[in-house]
Specification:
Length: 422
């Protein structure tokens, strides 16, 4: 199988250049100007070609919560959002805390055959924080990382052991950082807006304390660690100073943290309820600054699809989470590149190269001989977000009515067109 993508602007790590790309047998066979038309031609006139986007933090809900999402609907949503590869969190039912569940997820994803799906195993059995899961067996079955995402591992000794085991098996710990005692049932950021609404707040410190602990463990043990969905300005600062002294810490944030402030909770829209909570303007600004200077290595969605019955209840009872995989590219492009200072190459670094590097996944760059995982987008295309039109089963977005730029035109995985907007 052979085809040429012609007339597009290719987003390389060092800049954007007009180039044609010859795809052959799932690989990028040649990159150059005016390549002869071999086989079929995809006309990418006016379009930008990115290395296939990678989302290293999603919830696909299968097994167990297929009403919210399943591997098929989640994969369809992923390719519609421009993602060629995702890593799915283990808070399923049963929890992915053993090699059987890990194997099942890989098997289902291969049957669905849309984007690449990399399972993340849990750190502790049942994500209960008490006893280590079968880390080695899950790694052998294909888990690319471990995480108790959705919850923190409150026992520091267990976290230490988890980091050591993960390191022995050459995978990373992805840490959900919230001190559960300090959160104490909080559902929004603690501040003026929690007072105005009467909703129970959660302090920044709940997140920062755990970020600092994971960094302390990583530094003492000299083992790399990754911090999930950073939401606080102070957390960004803790990570920045740790990086400056050489700690092997990497970190991620999500579009909702660099688009929104907790003013959005004032109308009690449960689609704004997410864990950790949306904070204030100085946090939003710090997340953007962190993504600009690389303190925050990558953008993830924390795609957390929920059903109507999970969200159409009073705020304090609603499920935490935002269905984000179909809006991440446009939200990131619009806020950071179009309205911000970020270059397209930096965006590709944050949404593709960095996650590939952090987890040792293939892809992440456009190079001859490399895998043909590509995301082709029309950056000039403007549209208004409407959650009801999502491919995902989760229609829960706080971005309804938001006007964004950047529409995914094609998502190509191993050379196969898995999504086309036409
Ligand atoms: O808001 C969230 N939802 N945060 C998490 O960490 C977990 C996720 C979920 O599973 O719904
Ligand atoms: Zn998550």
């Amino acid at each position: 199988m052979k085809y040429v993508i012609k007339n597009g602007s290719v987003v390389f790590s060092d800049g954007v250049r007009p180039c044609d790309i010859l795809v052959e047998d799932g690989k990028i066979a040649k990159i150059g100007e005016n390549l002869p038309a071999e086989g079929e031609v995809i006309d990418a006139e006016g379009l930008h070609i990115f290395p296939g986007l990678i989302d290293m933090h999603v919830h696909l809900r299968e097994p167990g919560y297929e009403g919210k999402e399943d591997i098929e609907s989640g994969s369809k949503a992923a390719v519609a959002g421009g993602f060629t590869q995702v890593c799915c969190m283990p808070n399923t039912n049963p929890v992915n805390d053993n090699a059987v569940v890990t194997t099942y997820i890989k098997y289902r994803a291969e049957k669905v055959n849309l984007c690449k799906v990399n399972p993340i195993g849990s750190i502790t059995k049942g994500e209960k924080g008490e006893e280590l899961a079968e880390i080695g067996k899950m790694a052998a079955a294909g888990a690319v990382a471990i995480s108790d995402d959705g919850r923190s591992v409150m026992d520091s000794k267990i976290m230490r052991l988890a980091m050591e085991y993960a390191n022995d098996f050459n995978i990373k710990c992805l840490c959900h950082c919230e001190d559960e005692n300090l959160v104490d049932g909080g559902v929004v950021n603690e501040g003026l807006n929690s007072t105005i609404t009467g909703l129970k707040g959660s302090l920044r410190a709940a997140e920062d304390i755990m970020i600092a602990r994971e960094i302390a463990l990583s530094e003492s043990l000299d083992i790399p660690v990754h911090i999930c969905h950073v939401s606080t300005y102070s957390g960004v600062e803790i990570i920045r100073s740790a990086k400056a002294r050489g700690v092997k810490v990497t970190a991620e944030s999500c579009p909702h943290y660099f688009w929104l402030t907790d003013d959005v909770i004032r109308d009690f829209d449960t689609n704004t309820k997410v864990n950790p909570p949306i904070r204030e303007e100085k946090d939003r600004q710090a997340i953007i600054a962190g993504l600009m200077d690389g303190t925050l290595d990558c953008i993830v969605t924390d795609h957390a699809p929920h059903g109507k019955k999970d969200k159409q209840v009073e705020y304090s009872l609603a499920a935490f989470g935002i269905s984000g995989i179909e809006t991440s590219f446009s939200l990131s492009y619009t806020m950071l590149v179009k309205e911000g200072e970020m270059t397209l190459s930096q965006l590709a670094e944050r949404m593709s190269a960095a996650p590939a590097r952090i987890l040792g996944l293939e892809g992440g760059k456009i190079e001859e001989g490399g895998v043909a995982d590509l995301t082709i987008a029309d950056l000039a295309a403007k549209y208004v977000i409407d959650g009801e039109k999502f491919v995902s089963k989760g229609k829960n977005t706080p971005f309804n009515g938001t006007e964004v730029y950047g529409r995914v035109a094609y998502t190509i995985v191993d050379g196969d067109i898995k999504y086309s907007a036409k």
